[in-house]
Amino acid sequence: MVQGYCVKCKAKTEIADAKKITMKNGKPATQGKCPKCGTKVFKIGA
Length: 46
What we know:
By secondary structure, the chain is mainly β. It has one domain. It is 0% helix and 57% strand. The strands form 2 sheets. It has a 3-stranded antiparallel sheet with strand order 3-4-5, with no helix packed on it. A hairpin with a 6-residue loop joins strand 4 and strand 5. The chain is elongated. The chain starts with a strand and ends with a strand.
């Protein structure tokens, strides 16, 4: 699983419901939710 930083929990967490996306500038990223609080978690380049 991919890990990202949750700003609300202030800790690295596994990204739940992870989806691979491409940003406007063409770089890959992963977007999902924090399993603890439900906040959006975003990781660039993964």
